[in-house]
Amino acid sequence: MSAVTLSVLDLAPVQADATAGDALHATTRLAKHAEELGFRRFWVAEHHNMPGIASAAPAVVLAHLAASTSRIRVGSGGVMLPNHPPLVVAEQFGTLESLHPGRIDLGIGRAPGTDPVTARALRRNAEGLAGDSFPRELTSLIGFFRGADPDGIVASPGRDAEPQVWLLGSSGYSAQVAAVLGLPFAFAHHIAPDNTAAALALYRDHFRPSETLSAPYTIVAASAICADTDAEADRLAAPRDLAFAQLRAGRPQALATPEQAAAFPGSDAERRFAAQRKAGQLQGSPDTVRAQAADLLAAAAPDELMLNTLVYDIDARIRSLELTRDAIGG
């Protein structure tokens, strides 16, 4: 297996016995270690109305992470465009790019990242929530960075301070939009592993060179939990599995301890769901993760592999990154 560029996707998980502030401090610590370990970029994701996630305001979190590091690229994985007017996003990320030139990524998603009621509370009207609005709003956002708004509005900061814009997705639709616009594309393998290879093939087949990008460029984001043994990795993964089961049931909670997760009386359906989510991801000892990564890289051939390590303890998250980097050789 040849070496691959490695990056990090973090959700700033809130522990069951801790605060959002504790979670954000842990994420900052993780970003610093990722920089020391040589990871290319560190992204945080926008989610709302979820007690277990503290990264609801990516632009604010990224300002702190960029100021706390010096080399690693920091960005959103992603900002959910249906929740925000494009001008606001352009000004926020234009400000970040102005403060930290050449280090800011703006990953854009087309889902709200929350439930419909919360999505309406965020946007206040339904105009930006319609699926067919996304290409228009994405084009408008990029236009603000390049001074091309037809109404003569100037995003300041924003104009001439364009971060690297990415399109995120878990389907063929997002892949094709990224290809037509000539944008780099990040696929959420940790959400939709069965769609990964097909979506990346669509992106590459339909890619049109742009002033942003001359050739296709892809990231695959995968769940990655690596420990000294397979059994320890499974123990660390139990809170993640419980969190997804609670989210699926409409009852999102803060991240349980491994002991709490192990004691949870899950149903057969929840156990099957956890097994399905584990399939195709990276979980186990270094030898196990090395083999899993080889399969994933052979099937998808991404330019970068982005690791999402959703475990309870920050020391275990850092250790997982170290072991995964050494196992994969990034």
TrEMBL record:
NCBIfam families: oxido_grp_1 (TIGR03558). One of its GO terms (molecular function) is monooxygenase activity. It comes from Nocardia rhizosphaerihabitans. This is FMN-linked alkanal monooxygenase. Pfam families: Bac_luciferase. To bacterial alkanal monooxygenase alpha and beta chains. Keywords: Monooxygenase, Oxidoreductase. The lineage of its organism: Bacteria, Bacillati, Actinomycetota, Actinomycetes, Mycobacteriales. Residues 7-295 form the Luciferase-like domain. It comes from the Bacteria.
